[in-house]
Amino acid sequence: MGEKADRGLLEARQSRATMPAGGFKPQEIANLMWALATLGEKADRGLLEAMQTQATATAGGFKPQEVANVLWALATMGEKADRELLVVMQKRVTETAWEFTPQAVTNLMWALATMGEKADRGLLEAMQRRATATVEDFTPQAIANLMWGLATMGEKADRELLEAMQRRATATAVDFTPQAIANLMWALATLGERADRGLLAAMQRRGMATAGVFTPQAVANVLWALAVMGDAFLEGRLAILVDRLTVRILDLRGKFSEADKSQLHQWLLLCELGLASGASLPKGVKRVKQEIGPECLQAFTGQATHESKLQREVGTALKSTGMEVVEEFHDARSGYSIDVLVRRRSAAGSTGGAKSSQEPAAMWAVEVDGPTHFLGDGRTPRGGTLLKRRLLGLLGYTVVPVTFWEWNALKGAESKGRYLEDKIAQSNSWGGSLSMDYLVPGTE
User: Fold this and answer.
1) Where are the domains of the chain?
2) What is the pLDDT of residues 12-22, one digit of tens each?
3) Confidence label for 41 from pLDDT (cuts 50, 70 and 90)
4) How many CA atoms lie within 13 A of 30 on its CB side?
5) Of 11, 163, 235, 365, which one has the greatest count of Cβ atoms within 10 A?
6) Contact 182, 210 (CB under 8 A)
7) Which alpha helices (H) appear in 252-402, and where do they start and end?
8) What is the CATH code for 309-426?
9) What are 424-435's pLDDT values in tens digits?
């Protein structure tokens, strides 16, 4: 249908569909839901409930494309799937995984991520295997959406899938849109992965060719991703891409969301802190910093922070050791909130006056990393966690990660205090370069 359906006709069809829902077949349910979502229409509540109930009852007859279409339609219409429907549909996906096309795989993963749902382990493994097996049929948008879905759900990607998708993205780079470039780069960074050299070069060339039509979000996502990946993006060919994106930033001034500005702040901070001794910022980066740097910092510091129960426990345990402690310390230069700042008593008299310019050896930034700081495997740090550690190190802090699984394994106040003292005594400065091969303490 080239035209939007007449609203009266749509309402009549929805009303009729609600009544005989018990007789609808899987294909009819999928087609109706897909049509409503494609036309940009919201299904009425009665229809949604009837369709989901019937889909749940007939899940065993759904084909892969029909499963994907139903969930894609719900996500596109901004609706949440019923818990019963999700359970039976995920089971059906696992049963029919070998029949899924690349588009069906992508639509399914995108839908689950958009609805804020977690895929079960069986589905994740099945879809990643199927995507790897059919990688040569993936389009640029399908690649980007699949990786975006995994990253949004916080699920670690299989090594085989990562390698296959990066190869395919490199081969099809000329067809990537700015949004696809941004989604892919953001996803890899969020997953704590580097883009390989071939992919990075291909995305750089395509990004340069399309920089003039990047959206505000796409610009922010790409620059944040480069910062997380730790690449020397102010040198060589990447510097040309960055220069063109800085021009685009200034063209788009006033159109960036608060989330976009927060990402740009982290990128600008790394540009400044990562400079070699005696070097100066490129003109484009310097102009961006001058013109929108303050509002980016304000957006970053305006993000809500919440002290967790785990963080309070660590703070209390540190105080019991006799160390000088400042909880929720605000670093004015970066805007970061440090979970617990620890200082040697000999370093300064009053902890309330602590500054990031103090001797690095005298200050430790204790970062209490709960489950949300890691991917679904519970051990791999998210990109944002890695970037914060790197930036705090460059600011002169010695970063001491305290992971939830190590902490939860400790019994008694004495063992927790001794654990923290040992962590601080054994810590090394994070100043310098970020290694994406970094092993979180306790995972070796």
Assistant:
1) 1-137, 172-303, 309-426
2) 455 545 545 45
3) confident
4) 18
5) 365
6) no
7) 258-273, 283-301, 309-320, 383-394
8) 3.40.960
9) 888 854 333 333
